[in-house]
UniProtKB/TrEMBL annotation:
It comes from Cajanus cajan. This is Uncharacterized protein.
């Protein structure tokens, strides 16, 4: 899970996905992981957004 690029600073994306919610805990905590990696990260639900497909 790559974090911000130092070159672009605050203008870079915070996280790049896609991610899969692996497990949901109580109190709005989720374990997410990238599709191509097996490393999970615990995130608060307030930082997550729903995925919407773009109409092409």
């Amino acid at each position: 899970m790559d974090q911000k690029s130092r070159y672009l600073g605050k203008w870079s994306y915070n996280w790049e996905g896609p991610f899969v919610v692996e497990q949901a805990y109580s109190k709005n905590a989720y374990v997410i992981k990238e599709i191509n990696l097996n490393i999970g990260k615990v995130m608060n639900g307030k930082y997550l957004k729903h995925f919407h497909n773009r109409a092409e």
